[in-house]
Amino acid sequence: MNKFWTKAVKEAKPYIPGEQINQPNLLKLNTNENPYPPSPKAIKAISEETGDSLRLYPTPTMDSLRKAIANNFDLKHENVFVGNGSDEVLAFSFMAFFERGSTIKYPSITYSFYPVYANLFNVSVDEVPLNKDFTISPEKFFNAPGGIIFPNPNAPTSLYLKLEAIELILKNNPHNIVIVDEAYVDFAETSAASLINQYDNLLVIQTLSKSRALAGLRVGFALGHPDLIEALIRMKDSFNSYPVDRLALAGAEAAICDSQYFKETTQKIINTREWTVKEMTELGFEVLPSQANFIFTKHSKHRGEKLYQQLKDANILVRHFNTEPISDYLRITIGTDADMKRLVTYLKSII
Ligand SMILES: *Cc1c(COP(=O)(O)O)cnc(C)c1O
């Protein structure tokens, strides 16, 4: 506390990101980063942009990247907003679509940045309880006048909500905004982006941090009706004309256009996930049916906190949430085959 702090600073409850430890031989499976390098075409594009052009501001409208993203989803560039990581896009979305003093809905177990934004932007929250098996009942999100936000697949549960269920939520909220945070959707069945031309209340948010292996570049985007996109642009231009720098614009566009590399690495991660689930299940772990690049798992005979600590002592970092009812679960990012063999071999030695 300091006498110069405003009320907003005093009352902020900042997000605590996963530990970013750097030490040799550490197997980092705690922040859902991609184990493969970014597309070589993205690296090349970033290198080529590193030069005299950095004297100049980037284009504030980011048209070229927006067109590339639009092409990828069969949409128009008016349907696309780009920001400095999807966390920034989420923040602009809270400002643009959730009225101060209103009450929004999100799942009781979900991405822990949402409560941070709710607090920062002065909206109340009606947390929607999940079912015992952590699934979402779409009916519980019907008629939510303040608006709705949820990740699909949900984090940290890894569970995917089918497109039909999302459509039900959209149909039963014709006057309310529905934000679907698809950070992990490339590892799942299908994106709700295909519904954008049908529903003017749908905003889909994606990131290049997970499936495109560019967490360090900080690029995320939103897809929606042009009026929703215009609202986000108005927020961005009231805050920072250039949140996405030249290197990020160049790298992101090349990464989006390299669909072959993207498909190969994504499929490898899905295959490794399925192998990991099988091995862990044989060790007596209960693993939720993941459609993400991480799994959410517990063992009936081993406490989550102890397992987390044992793994950490063995130089394997996973994520543990010390809150009920998930304190016995571990969230484990899917790495390479070799990474997951190291994890499973170690678990075999202690289970
Ligand atoms: C990782 C993640 C994000 C944030 O991604 P950035 O683009 O790196 O800011 C947003 N939502 C969920 C659910 C995530 O897991």
Short description:
Strands 2-8-7-6-5 form a five-stranded mixed beta sheet, with helices on both faces.
Descriptive overview:
The chain contains eleven helices and 13 strands. With 351 residues, it is an alpha/beta fold. The strands form four sheets. Strands 2-8-7-6-5 form a five-stranded mixed sheet, with helices on both faces. A four-stranded antiparallel sheet has the order 9-10-13-12, covered by helices on one side. The chain has a two-stranded parallel ribbon with strand order 1-11. Strand 9 and strand 10 form a beta hairpin. The longest helix has 24 residues, at 259-282. The mean pLDDT is 97. Residues 85-87, 111, 151, 155, 181, 183, 207, 209, 215, 220 line the site of pyridoxal-5'-phosphate (PLP).
Task: Name some characteristics of this structure.
4-stranded antiparallel beta sheet; alpha/beta; 36% helix; single chain; binds pyridoxal-5'-phosphate; 11 helices; 5-stranded mixed beta sheet; 15% strand; 351 residues
- Measured between the Cα atoms of the first and last residue, the distance is 46 Å
Give Rg in angstroms.
Answer: 20 Å
Structural class: alpha/beta
The proportion of residues forming helix, as a percent range, comes to 25-40%
Widest β-sheet, arrangement of strands:
2-8-7-6-5
Number of helices: 11
Number of strands: 13
Low-confidence stretches: none
User: Can you give the mean pLDDT?
Assistant: 97
The string of secondary-structure elements, in order, is: HEHHEHEHEEHEEEHHHEEHEEEH
Main beta-sheet annotation: 5 strands, mixed
The small-molecule ligands in this entry are: pyridoxal-5'-phosphate
Strand content: 5-15%
Q: How does the overall form come out from the CA principal axes?
A: globular
